[in-house]
Amino acid sequence: MDLNMGEDIVILVVYCLVLLFFGLVVQRRSRELEHSNQRLKAEVERREKVEAELRQLSDSLEQEVDQRTRELQDIQVALEREVKATELAKQRMTSIFESAPNGMLVVNKEGVITQANSMVASIFRCSAQELVGQSVESLVPQELREQHHHNRQEFQQQPSKRMMGARRDLYGVRFDGSRVPVEVGLHPVGLDGGAEIVAAVVDISERKAYEQRIHERNTALESSNRELQEFAFIASHDLREPLRKIISFSTLLQEGEYGEFTQEGNEFSGYIVSAAERMRDLLSDLLAYSRVTSKASPFKRVRLNSLLDEVLDDLQLMIEETGAEIHVADLPILAVDKVQFRQLFQNLIGNALKYHHPSRVPIIQIEDHSDEHYARIVVQDNGIGFDQAQAEHIFEVFRRLHTMHAFPGTGMGLAICRKIVQRHGGHIYAHSKEGEGTRMTIELVHEDGGRDDRSE
């Protein structure tokens, strides 16, 4: 019994030990499992986090791709527009180039024609395709090609726009070998491969022929004018002597040295003397008119105030008879023909005295209205004036506004004035009002850019 009890105790102890061992094993395994669960949980969380980050990155990439796609689409649309606009611009430029009223050439830096329009082709009597690829020197006369090549290289080194007509007497060589006068304008165009030259070419054959005709007509006209001036001079000079004799002998007959005339005879002889004197005055004025150009003197600098002093001395008797007041301002020094300008002022002031108003004292003012571009001398009076509609006609040869009985004269005075002023490259104008007076303006271009020389 004791033995069985001992065995039971042993078994119980063993069982307890087994239970303890299994408990420890289970506890250890439980801890291992718990630790594994924790690691698994952490791994799951890490993976969930990574997946979340991946999803976020994926979403961001999708947005970036969408944005880039939209940008690329916008760029593509913009490029298509640019290409289309460039094509349209090219078409417009080609159309403008082809329809230009002038001949147009494009020459590269090697001097080869890369583009030509139909107008320039017609100038050189070929097709535009025949011009393309040709050296531009082939369109230049043989003797000038080397110089043209040198000039073209210099132009390309220092390109600048050159307008039409900058060089005269240019000639091109057509494909048939004939020459054509041209004008050429150059416009450099900068490109990545070097500057090209756009040349505008104009056929000036008609203009050259017209200029030649004008030159020939001018030469003939100058010859005719010289002949007319010589004729006027000879005629007026040679006719004055017979008139002098007519006047002298008629005057002697009127004085009764060779018998008495009847009243009717005296009247007729008076007509002869009066007509001969008018003819004499007319011939004198005609001679003066022809001498404006035929007997002209070189221009010299003249102090106008000193010149007017001489004129007023010559007109002193007439000034005293009319009681005129003449006021002369400070006038400039001008380069003029002194003799002719003396006659000019003498005619203008003489007219102002002749056509004075009968009911008031004649007042004549001579003033300087010059500016930086023009010398303007004004002769103003308070005389009888005239209708402004006649302002141009009064400068015509033999034009008179009054009868010989009212105011004597030949109608040549103002015509001579205009011719003198025109010979000096200027103009003379008349402004008047009936009953109030007349203003004569002499206008000359300053020969020295407007410098005031009163201090000389």
Automatic annotation (TrEMBL):
Transmembrane regions: 6-26
Pfam families: HATPase_c, HisKA, PAS
Its EC number(s): 2.7.13.3
Chain ranges of the Histidine kinase domain: 234-448
UniProt-recorded Gene Ontology molecular function terms: phosphorelay sensor kinase activity
PROSITE patterns for the chain: HIS_KIN (PS50109), PAC (PS50113), PAS (PS50112)
Keywords: Coiled coil, Kinase, Membrane, Phosphoprotein, Transferase, Transmembrane, Transmembrane helix
Coiled coil (residue ranges): 30-78
Residues of the PAC domain: 166-216
Name of protein: histidine kinase
Species name: Marinomonas piezotolerans
Organism ancestry: Bacteria, Pseudomonadati, Pseudomonadota, Gammaproteobacteria, Oceanospirillales
